[in-house]
């Protein structure tokens, strides 16, 4: 398969927005003369011809700042962007483009246009990660023939390697369009290989590679600047002596929107049908036992002037039951107190927060590290449900698109590699928990699917693929022993994959992954894929990890927003499908939280970055308009004379007096009524999971996001989780009800002894809910009896 590309107006508009800033700049291929003696020695040593000892660089901008500013404002007015009060840097230009619309394609097109109009030919693309670097390189590879046909020339592109000095020499000495792709760590870290760019090299004529590169006056293109531009990196970027800097992302930091020239945000991308429609399957537990010490350590915050704090998620007791909540904690924080007195947290007092080891220790000796989860009895059940729902969604979408020649892919994000693959005592790779669950659930869903899907060609396709070969992983691997490692322990002796075949397939061979003859359809990955990698045929994304405040929902869905392609490599966009684009292109997110929670967060993030452009011109009503439309409107009048009356003051004083009533009634009658009330009305909710399915229904403007009317629920369902009480947690059942009701221990004991066995058995399945519901019933019955005996 070979992917086909087409010219699209919005990409041409984005390229024009950058190029038109320099309207009036002469087109000059500018040459500079290198040191002859050095170049002669280098020529002899490397046997590389360099006629005239010349190199080529980008001609400096010859326009005045006044002309540049006038051009900038002209472009910003055209694109309805707030005017920049001044020109940031010389020159910083920002392009905002929604994930999945072809950001890399756009800046490659911009390079060709800048060369065509002004003769600029030296470009450096700075990326924050290996995943983005490989994705950019792959896009150059896939689009080279497409752009060669349009512009009649080709770009020479390469990935920077500290040992590949001949490529740097050609970058400087050749007059064609040259692009160097470099990872920010290649010039901003302290490793030996990293320092080579700043060191004079004997094999490079005693020159520093950074000086040779900087002499070309390169144009820097920063891909995902919010992930690149830390304070140290910004200083290092100056060493390239860039002619100008172009910055591309869908999620720029609000304080880094330097000279914004083009914006295609999430609202506009969806409205123009340039990305997939989003559907959400939210999965949540509708009850909880609270019978284990559930704790999730999300993050540790370090400060220079005070002790570290941590963000901890644990369960708290509310009026409506037990809920999970995140809190910022410090040393001495008592989980038992702040949970509302849940017995599971008795003895959990924070004794130490270790910022170096990223751990939190409790007074009872328990220790937890960042990213770890303790005691979540429902966690395994929820993960299995998520995997099952992803496979079911995959099969449903696949059955619809199979005859259209569209392969369906699903992506799982996990936070612990060992959950997918680990090693036995002999060093052999074996399945982790998620891989085992996946294969079990895949077989079960496949068996059911045979009774649902009647299309013979599709059934034949399903039956020829085994559960074992249809999933693959992409993780970090230590080159020394070829074992997968967690990303937080990575060092220079590793590459990114669980094996070379999976790495090549997932990262480099996008066309083969899209081929129906390739059995891999489900991809498991660490969060390394969260930025930079995407595939147009990802239709399901499932996050098998704890939610983190550092990971935005738009990042999670971004890996699957691109419009899909068929087996001919044709993009299934509005030109191919017309108004049916969003019938075929639907991305389903199987969220690790409730539907409401996920949707609220996603809408808030889109609303945060969306341009303030309403769907229709706003109509502002001033007071005069209101009076003419509603003639009965009057100003309210405050009658001070009434408030100041003595009788009013007396009434107010009487109402403020607190009253107490003493009620006396027989113990037997009281206990008997409470027993009958509990037997009749006590219904402790069983632990269930709830699945809600929704999809984007109406997305026109920022106002629709504000109203919360964007996603519409389309389906839902529930299921039961059979759990037993955890014997590790000891409950003072009588004491807890005494605390909540004010009754004596003897009265509570008589009540519990008197209720039916089936009523008391509810305590075994959900102890905390039993205590909450029983206490509430007792208090309501108490109030009723007080009224009857007044």
TrEMBL record:
Residues 76-252 form the Helicase/UvrB N-terminal domain. This is Restriction endonuclease. GO terms for molecular function: ATP binding; DNA binding; endonuclease activity; hydrolase activity. Pfam families: ResIII. Keywords: Endonuclease, Hydrolase, Nuclease. It comes from Desulfosporosinus acidiphilus (strain DSM 22704 / JCM 16185 / SJ4). It comes from the Bacteria.
């Amino acid at each position: 398969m070979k992917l086909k590309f087409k010219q699209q107006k919005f990409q041409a508009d984005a390229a024009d927005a950058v190029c038109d800033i320099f309207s009036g700049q002469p087109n000059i291929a500018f040459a500079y003369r290198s040191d002859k003696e050095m170049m002669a020695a280098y020529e002899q040593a490397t046997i590389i011809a360099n006629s005239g000892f010349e190199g080529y660089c980008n001609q400096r901008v010859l326009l005045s700042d006044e002309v540049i500013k006038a051009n900038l404002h002209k472009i910003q007015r055209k694109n309805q962007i707030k005017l920049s009060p001044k020109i940031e840097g010389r020159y910083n230009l920002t392009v905002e483009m929604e994930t999945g619309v072809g950001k890399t394609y756009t800046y490659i097109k911009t390079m060709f246009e800048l060369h065509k109009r002004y003769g600029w030919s030296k470009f450096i693309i700075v990326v924050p990660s290996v995943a983005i670097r490989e994705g950019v390189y792959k896009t150059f590879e896939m689009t080279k023939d497409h752009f060669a046909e349009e512009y009649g020339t080709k770009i020479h592109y390469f990935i920077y390697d500290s040992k590949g000095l001949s490529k740097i020499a050609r970058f400087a000495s050749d007059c064609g369009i040259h692009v160097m792709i470099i990872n920010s760590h290649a010039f901003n870290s302290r490793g030996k290989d990293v320092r080579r760019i700043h060191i004079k090299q004997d094999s490079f004529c005693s020159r520093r590679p950074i000086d040779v590169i900087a002499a070309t006056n390169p144009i820097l293109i920063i891909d995902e600047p919010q992930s690149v531009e830390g304070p140290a990196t910004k200083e290092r970027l100056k060493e390239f002596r860039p002619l100008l800097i172009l910055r591309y992302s869908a999620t720029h930091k609000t304080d880094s929107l330097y000279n914004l020239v083009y914006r295609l945000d999430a609202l506009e991308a969806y409205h123009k049908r340039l990305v997939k429609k989003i559907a959400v399957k939210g999965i949540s537990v509708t009850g909880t036992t609270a019978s284990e010490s559930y704790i999730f350590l999300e993050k540790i915050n370090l400060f220079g002037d005070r002790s570290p704090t941590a963000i901890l998620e644990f369960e708290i007791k509310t009026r409506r039951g037990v809920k999970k909540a995140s809190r910022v904690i410090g040393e001495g924080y008592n989980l038992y107190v702040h949970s509302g007195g849940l017995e599971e947290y008795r003895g959990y007092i924070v004794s130490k927060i270790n910022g170096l080891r990223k751990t939190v220790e409790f007074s009872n000796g328990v220790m937890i590290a960042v990213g770890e989860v303790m005691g979540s009895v429902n966690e395994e059940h929820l993960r299995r449900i998520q995997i099952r729902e992803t496979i079911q969604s995959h099969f449903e979408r696949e059955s619809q698109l199979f005859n259209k020649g569209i392969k369906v892919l699903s992506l799982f994000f996990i936070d612990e590699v060992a959950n997918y693959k680990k090693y036995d005592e002999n060093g052999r790779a074996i399945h982790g928990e998620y891989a085992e669950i996946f294969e079990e659930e895949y077989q079960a869903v496949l068996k059911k699917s045979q009774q649902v899907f009647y299309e013979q060609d599709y059934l034949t396709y399903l039956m020829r693929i085994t559960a074992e070969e249809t999933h693959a992983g992409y993780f970090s691997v230590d080159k020394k022993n070829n074992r997968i490692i967690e990303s937080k322990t990575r060092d220079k002796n590793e590459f990114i994959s669980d094996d070379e075949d999976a790495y090549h397939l997932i990262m480099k061979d996008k066309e083969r992954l899209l081929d129906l003859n390739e059995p891999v359809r489900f991809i498991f990955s660490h969060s390394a894929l969260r930025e930079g990698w995407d595939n147009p045929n990802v239709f399901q994304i499932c996050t098998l990890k704890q939610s983190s405040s550092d990971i935005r929902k738009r990042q999670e869905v971004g890996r699957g927003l691109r419009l899909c392609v068929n087996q001919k490599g044709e993009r299934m966009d509005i030109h191919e499908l017309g108004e049916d684009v969003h019938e075929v292109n639907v991305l389903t997110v199987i969220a690790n939280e409730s539907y409401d929670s996920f949707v609220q967060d996603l809408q808030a993030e889109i609303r945060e970055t969306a341009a303030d452009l309403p769907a229709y011109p706003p109509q502002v009503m001033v007071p005069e308009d209101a009076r003419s439309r509603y003639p009965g409107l009057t100003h309210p009048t405050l009658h001070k004379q009434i408030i100041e009356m003595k009788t009013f003051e007396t009434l107010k004083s009487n109402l403020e007096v607190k009253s107490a009533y003493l009620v006396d009634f027989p113990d037997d009658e009281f206990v008997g009524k409470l027993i009958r009330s509990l037997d009749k009305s006590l219904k402790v909710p069983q632990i269930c999971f709830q699945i809600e399915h929704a999809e984007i229904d109406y997305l026109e403007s920022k106002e629709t996001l504000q109203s919360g009317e964007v996603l519409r629920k389309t389906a839902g369902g529930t299921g039961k989780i059979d759990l037993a009480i955890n014997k590790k947690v000891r409950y003072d059942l009588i004491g807890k009800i005494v605390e909540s009701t004010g009754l004596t221990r003897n009265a509570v004991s008589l009540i519990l002894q008197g209720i039916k066995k089936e009523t008391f058995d509810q305590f075994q399945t959900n102890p905390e809910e039993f205590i909450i519901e029983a206490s509430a019933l007792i208090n309501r019955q108490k109030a009723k009896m007080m009224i009857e005996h007044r």
